[in-house]
Design brief:
The protein is α+β, with helices and mostly antiparallel strands. The chain has seven helices and 14 strands. The strands form four sheets. A five-stranded antiparallel sheet has the order 11-10-9-12-13. The chain has a four-stranded antiparallel sheet with strand order 5-8-6-7. It is globular, with a radius of gyration of 19 Å.
């Protein structure tokens, strides 16, 4: 379906990826509008809107604008076979995680309720006075990733990829398959794409993904492993091709009437906002 009669709505606090998507949208004749506040802009209700922004922005305007933001299920990472994660991963509650006796990597699956990092034990997690114990969390064994990559995936195919970290530090670069990188590191692209194909082939049943998503993969001292999956409409593009990222974002948070039935299990529940 043509997008030339639609609008790409960007959150008020536009980031570098948002700026790139706005330019990419203009190249294909798609209107782009940066919101001035955390409200749906006047005149967009009842029109075809696609969104790029964080979860808070999606929650603030999504229902009013009839959007269908897609996100991986909370238990996606835990549902993958261990040969793809190289670690034990459990979907549990924050109350249970607070009982952890030793170090673990803990994060909220979707929203950033608290900092995702290695915690020395459960007592270091946010207490009940800050966050409800029923909050779902992913608890993982600690793994060191030497290099990490972001993949934008559409209909089971990698549309764009970018390195975003090396040695635990931010490091953006598009993976090149035909030559070593200028800093002397051998290109990771062939192995990255081969591992990505294995991950996407395993994305069925409880480990299924929405048709548009972001998947992060990394190289560890023991081989390749899945880092996590996230909503494409709320993820940074790093050094990915903005035109390819836009293709994924348009599907990831578009008009609800255009949502394929297979994507309905991945709809983010949107609150009804009372002004």
């Amino acid at each position: 379906m043509s997008t030339t009669d639609a609008t790409l709505l960007l959150a008020p606090r536009i980031n570098e990826t948002g700026l790139q998507l706005r330019t990419a949208a203009g190249r294909r004749g798609l209107r782009a509008h940066t919101a001035a506040s955390w409200r749906a802009p006047q005149g967009l209700a009842g029109t075809r809107v696609h969104l790029y922004g964080g979860p808070l922005f999606a929650d603030a305007v999504g229902r009013e604008l009839g959007l269908a933001p897609l996100e991986p299920s909370d238990g996606w990472l835990a549902a993958l076979p261990r040969e793809l994660t190289l670690r034990r991963v459990e979907l549990t509650t924050l109350a249970e995680a607070r009982r952890l006796p030793g170090p673990a990597f803990v994060k909220a699956p979707a929203d950033k309720h608290f900092t995702a990092r290695v915690y020395p034990d459960g007592s270091a997690l946010p207490g009940p006075e800050l966050l409800d114990g029923a909050t779902p969390v992913l608890v993982s064994e600690v793994v060191r990733f030497d290099t990490e990559f972001r993949l934008f995936v559409l209909d089971g195919t990698v549309r764009a990829a970018s390195r975003y970290a090396r040695g635990g530090e931010l490091s953006f670069a598009a993976p090149e398959s035909d030559a070593p990188e200028s800093d002397g590191h051998k290109s990771d692209a062939p192995e990255l794409l081969a591992f990505a194909a294995d991950v996407l082939a395993a994305a069925t049943g409880p480990a299924a993904l929405p048709s548009a998503a972001v998947v992060d993969l990394g190289r560890t001292p023991h081989g390749w492993a899945v880092v996590e999956a996230n909503a494409a409409w709320a993820s940074g593009g790093y050094a990915c091709d903005p035109d390819a990222v836009l293709d994924v974002v348009l599907r990831a948070a578009g008009p609800l009437p255009e949502l394929p039935s297979t994507d309905r299990p991945f709809l983010r529940p949107l609150p009804e906002v009372v002004r």
